[in-house]
Specification:
mainly alpha
């Protein structure tokens, strides 16, 4: 991920070096600093910088300090990813407010060429928000016609169905949609993000443990023998037991 400090866009105020404070500063005037906010949010999320601030998850941080819902914050992170990936410059975003960019961002794909994005943004500048919404909707529908659709079917127990339906319901609420396919995709997206975080953490832990296992153990210093180089001492001969005296009785000759 590119360094966010080098990627900051023109805003209404000078931003502090500290990402934590910069997010709060941008949020205070989000209409002018939406691009900066998105880029910094992306950097904080990807680098897990929030952990150094005492938070176990990005969700805990944005809710506690920024007062944002996790879904809204993650959407800003995705926008920040897109801005960094396509290296969009201040002149590209000039006169494009958050409302317009939010609508047009759905048409910006990962493999889209920079010149095509610039042409799209230029077109958006000359439209009203309503005209842009209609334009995006028309283009999206045209794209959907050419997409191949796949039908998935599962046989679940009643208990399994309850769990899936509850997750699907929450996914639709968080994605602000009535479309079950979009809700399911959102649930899968969030799950994969969390899984990737856990796998990354486990990999780091395993690497550290592996280093400890492979590190050679320090050898214990041998005690120097004081008698090294000396001839072994001769053992003293065993003493003979004293001979027993025989006392003759008076009747013996």
């Amino acid at each position: 991920m590119a360094n966010s400090k080098a990627q900051l866009r023109a805003g209404s105020v000078a931003l502090p070096e500290d990402h934590r404070e910069a997010l709060k500063t941008c949020l205070a005037n989000i209409s002018e600093n939406w691009a900066n906010f998105s880029i910094i949010a992306s950097e904080v999320y990807r680098s897990e910088e929030f952990k150094s601030w005492g938070y176990e998850s990005f969700q805990d941080f944005v809710q506690a300090e920024l007062g944002l819902k996790y879904r809204s914050a993650m959407y800003r992170v995705q926008v920040g990813d897109s801005l960094i990936q396509h290296n969009l410059q201040p002149e590209d975003l000039a006169q494009i407010g958050w409302t317009k960019f939010e609508k047009v961002s759905s048409m910006i794909s990962k493999d889209m060429k920079r010149k095509d994005i610039q042409a799209l943004l230029k077109k958006a500048k000359g439209m009203t928000v309503r005209e842009l919404a209609d334009f995006v909707e028309t283009k999206t529908q045209d794209t959907k016609v050419t997409r191949t659709k796949t039908t998935l079917s599962f046989r679940l127990t009643n208990e399994q169905a309850d769990v899936v339906n509850e997750a699907l319901k929450k996914g639709m609420e968080m994605a602000a949609t009535d479309n079950q396919s979009v809700g399911l995709e959102y649930v899968a997206l969030i799950f994969n993000m969390h899984l990737q975080e856990k796998v990354s953490q486990k990999a780091q832990t395993a690497a550290v443990e592996s280093l400890h296992k492979e590190a050679p153990k320090p050898k214990k210093a041998r005690k120097a023998r004081a008698d090294k180089g000396k001839a072994p001492a001769k053992k003293a001969p065993a003493k003979k037991a004293p001979a027993k005296r025989t006392t003759k009785g008076r009747g013996d000759k």
